[in-house]
Amino acid sequence: MSRPVIQIPDNSKPEIDWTTGADQKTMAIHQLLDYFNSFLPLDEEEASAVVNAFHPRRIKRRQFILHEGDICTHNTFVVEGCFRMYLIDEKGKEHNLQFAVENWWIGDIGSFHTEQPSRLYIVAMEDSIVLQIRKGDQLRLFEDHPKFNRIFGVFTENALVAAQRRILQNISSTAEERYLDFLDRYPQLFNRISNVQIASFLGVTPEFLSTIRKKISRS
Amino acid sequence: MSRPVIQIPDNSKPEIDWTTGADQKTMAIHQLLDYFNSFLPLDEEEASAVVNAFHPRRIKRRQFILHEGDICTHNTFVVEGCFRMYLIDEKGKEHNLQFAVENWWIGDIGSFHTEQPSRLYIVAMEDSIVLQIRKGDQLRLFEDHPKFNRIFGVFTENALVAAQRRILQNISSTAEERYLDFLDRYPQLFNRISNVQIASFLGVTPEFLSTIRKKISRS
DNA sequence: ATGCTTTCTTAAGATACCTTAAGGGTGGCT
DNA sequence: AGCCACCCTTAAGGTATCTTAAGAAAGCAT
Q1: pLDDT tens column, A183-216
Q2: CA B199 to chain centre
Q3: Could you tell me which of B91, B129, B83 has the C-alpha nearest to residue B108?
Q4: Which residues, listed in sequence order, are joined to residue A120 by a DSSP beta bridge?
Q5: Residue B78: which of B53, B64, B58 has the closest Cα?
Q6: Contact status, residue B213 vs residue B178, Cβ threshold 8 Å
Q7: Residues of chain B contacting A89 with CB distance shorter than 8 Å
Q8: Which of A28, A110, A112, A150 has a CA positioned 20 to 30 A from the CA of residue B154?
Q9: Residue B58 CA to C22 C1' — how many Å?
């Protein structure tokens, strides 16, 4: 029954063969530069500082880029692919704090900033390509080119607004409302991520999400 | 070094009589400068920029400093007193997103940044004294004195980390665990704020919080 | 003091959500 | 092809939390 039809046209996917040369870094970096430019246009110097500061990396499905106990030393920009960041509680259950797909950032900001061990895991849910910047390089970027202070400041603010929104929803809405809002808000995610993971993000069991979906499909 | 040159009235009592002259602004501002200095020491110029940019204001209990539909035009530093920021849902129920007491910031960052009408209310729970800065003045402060970019960046990051922590707790913990954590985490708040408000912050009804408290007291 | 509002509590019945268990479907791997 | 891992669903019974209602205690206003 009305399971949402999954058709991902693959033609949009820039198939990147990492082995064929230096172009891949160029392509990935270009995507990041476009992204920065959409916030505040960069001049040549700033753009080349970005090129120098970020390093590309291929991540295989199920590969971790952060593990509990590690210090989060990199800030990560997703060029292609899909990640989730989660916590494992005392009972051994996973709870998804965040997803990240193309043009999203991911990392444990707390650990990155304080340099204390993280309690979080970040794992690739698909084969992925990322650009990473080390903390020291990011600080240098901020000092040498103050514009990045502003840009990253806006990212953090946006993340905070989204987090506050989610808190309000968690304390005021039912799981069904949260699920409907998720579908509305993240159309790029819901046909790409398993319901198990979405349930964990919403804070319900997969079984209960299933009954919610059944109820919705009857409407 | 940098302790800004601001006259401190010898009177160490926090009792502020607004009518007796200009000292009150001095005292309030001094508290804010101390606060900034505890993050990054300010030089004289920066300190005097703060003095010029922030305006003191007395807020009476039950008085609003932000109302749904308003655009949040100020960033607010609490010198003395206590506030809560909340949302009213479709059913007319209030849900507390945040509290703020001495040396905390409060405001609807989303509305402040986008200049769109807010959906939130901010109200004083006690007679209070605040220092406010207008958005334009804050931007000017950032431009003229880049250090404030960093300082406010740290504030925002800390707020984001706290918000993420709360999300994880909401999706992984029971109400009792959340309440115990609240007591642990905000000892300055729990004997100052009514249980009705705490319940609304935790996302439970006051009745249920009452049964939680009863259960805890029996241990 | 008298009343009015707010707070906290208690309890009974309802609803949201979880746990456990089971079965079927799909895709990857050999 | 066959097996295995993972995902999705369904259902029964349990727990967490809400709703409604009521009453007692504490603060605030007239």
Answers
A1: 999 999 988 999 999 999 999 999 999 999 999 9
A2: 19
A3: B83
A4: A87
A5: B58
A6: no
A7: 172-173
A8: A28
A9: 64
* Distance between CA atoms of residues A11 and A29, nearest Å: 21
Residue A153, chain B, CB below 8 Å: the answer is: yes
Measured CA to CA, the distance from residue A205 to residue A95 in angstroms comes to 10
- Amino acid identity at A19: T
Q: What is the CATH code of the structural domain delimited by A13-170?
A: 2.60.120.10
B66-99: per-residue pLDDT in tens? Answer: 999 999 999 999 999 999 999 999 999 999 999 9
Of residues A110, A171, A203, nearest to B95 (C-beta): A171
For A80, phi and psi rounded to 5 degrees?
-155, 140
- For the whole model, what pTM was predicted? 0.89
Q: Do B171 and A202 touch (CB under 8 A)?
A: yes
Task: Write down the CATH number for the domain with range B18-172.
Answer: 2.60.120.10
Give strand pairing partners of B57: B130
Query: How many Å apart are CA A168 and CA A171, to the nearest integer?
Result: 5
Does the CB of A211 have a partner CB in chain B at under 8 Å? no
Chain A closest CA to B25's CA: distance in Å?
A: 30
Does A156 contact B161 at a Cβ distance shorter than 8 Å?
no
